C-alpha cells in the first residue's frame, strides 16, 4: 500500500504529463532529497515509476490514468455503442452530471437531440464538445486541472457540484470487478461520489475491457449504481454479484 507521501508523488507526476525533474519534486513536496530518493526506489520496485538521470517518469499500468487523447481512441466502437444504449435514458428537460471519461465523451453528440438540457461536468473535453451546441446549458466545475485526463478535481469542484440536484449522472470507471468499482486515483473518485450523491439516478458506462481489471482507489459498491451499461455480457460470477446488489445490467 502506498504511503500518503508516495501518493503525492504519483499525483504530481500525473499532473505534470507523466514526468518531473528531481528539483521540481523537491520544490513541490517539501521533503529532503534522501526521503524522495527512498520513496522513488520503493515506487520503482513496485513498477510504478522509472528513474532516469535528473528525474523520474510514470510507468503506465492498468491502475493509472492514461491520457484522454489515448483513451478516446481505445475501443471507440464499443464506447459509441454504449453511449447510444445510454441515450435511452435521456429525455427533454433534464439536469445531468457528466464525468470526464472518454466513454461519456461519446454521449455528447447524442445529447444535442434533446431540448432544454442542463449539463454539469468536471471534464474540459466534455465542455469543449458541448460548446458547439448552443441549445445546451453547460456548467464546468472550478478547481485543479488534471492535464492528462483534461478533468477538474479538488475541493472547489466538489463544493460546486453540491449546488446542483441532477436527474442523472452518466459516468465511467477505471475498473469493475467482484470487489466493486474502482478509479485510477482518489481525486476522480471523490468527484464521482459527489455527483452520485446529488443525482437521482446513476448510470455506469463501461466497456468489457474494464471487467476484472484493476484500479487504484475504490469508488463504491454496485449497490450505489442503478444501471450498468456495457457492450458485452459480463462473467457469470461478476454478473451475480452486481445483480445481488440491486444494480441492473444492460448490454443491448
From TrEMBL:
Record-annotated HTH deoR-type domain positions: 3-58
InterPro entries: Carb_Metab_HTH_regulators, DeoR-like_C, DeoR_HTH, NagB/RpiA_transferase-like, WH_DNA-bd_sf
Record flagged with keyword Iron-sulfur: no
Pfam families: DeoRC, HTH_DeoR
Highest taxon listed in the record's lineage: Bacteria
Alphabetical UniProt keywords: Transcription, Transcription regulation
Full protein name: Transcriptional regulator, DeoR family
